[in-house]
Design a protein that fits this description.
192 residues; Phosphorylase Kinase, domain 1; alpha+beta; 11 strands
Length: 192
């Protein structure tokens, strides 16, 4: 009974909330690989050069921004105390010397209507339309799970003569309390 309760809680917690996802069109699908055209969007990002600080602070810093700890409202579009809705996916870029996490902002906002972050580590930017390759998987976003799917995507792209133009990104769509087998994770990378 406890397991059934956990499954139901997890299912409702992942489907009961309306979380906007980045908009894209699937250009090609082959097995578990999708080639997608993502629309232009805005992100709030933080970058750390220390991996431990990234693990400890990145998500919290961005969550702090979207849940209202930013400057008092400067744009007439937003009212004081309005919180920015959570969107999916949360993206992580594991560079060689730095680590970046990004939240996509809801599509109703523009660069002009988003509040300026109080925390100077939070950077707001517009991301142009781009073509990405993706593999979806469930489970935890562990290094080994991500690495296995990253390798699979790399092999597919090499075998099909795609040119990779960016870093392989971790994309997570669910809150942390979601049961592993119900999670939606992805490896995505910009291509041409």
């Amino acid at each position: 009974m406890r397991l059934i309760s956990l499954i139901l809680i997890s299912m409702f917690s992942t489907t009961g909330f309306s979380i906007e996802s980045l908009k894209y069109d699937v250009l090609e699908k082959n097995g578990n690989v999708e080639i997608r055209k993502y629309q232009k969007h805005i992100t709030a990002s933080v970058t750390f050069t220390d991996k431990k600080e990234f693990d400890r602070s990145a998500f919290r810093t961005l969550a702090d921004y979207i849940f209202g700890n930013n400057i008092s409202m400067t744009s007439p579009v937003l009212t004081e105390g309005e919180k920015i809705a959570m969107t999916a996916p949360v993206l992580s870029d594991n560079g060689q010397t730095s680590w970046t996490m990004s939240f996509s902002m809801p599509s109703k906002y523009t660069l002009e209507t988003l509040p300026t972050p109080n925390n100077p580590k939070v950077k707001i930017k517009e991301v142009e339309e781009k073509t990405m390759a993706a593999i979806r998987f469930s489970g935890f976003m562990s290094d080994s799970n991500f690495g296995r799917h990253e390798k699979s995507l790399k092999n597919y792209l090499e075998d099909n003569d795609y040119k990779v133009t960016g870093n392989y990104l971790r994309a997570g769509y669910n809150p942390p309390w979601t049961l592993p087998f119900l999670r939606r994770n992805e490896v995505i990378v910009e291509i041409r």
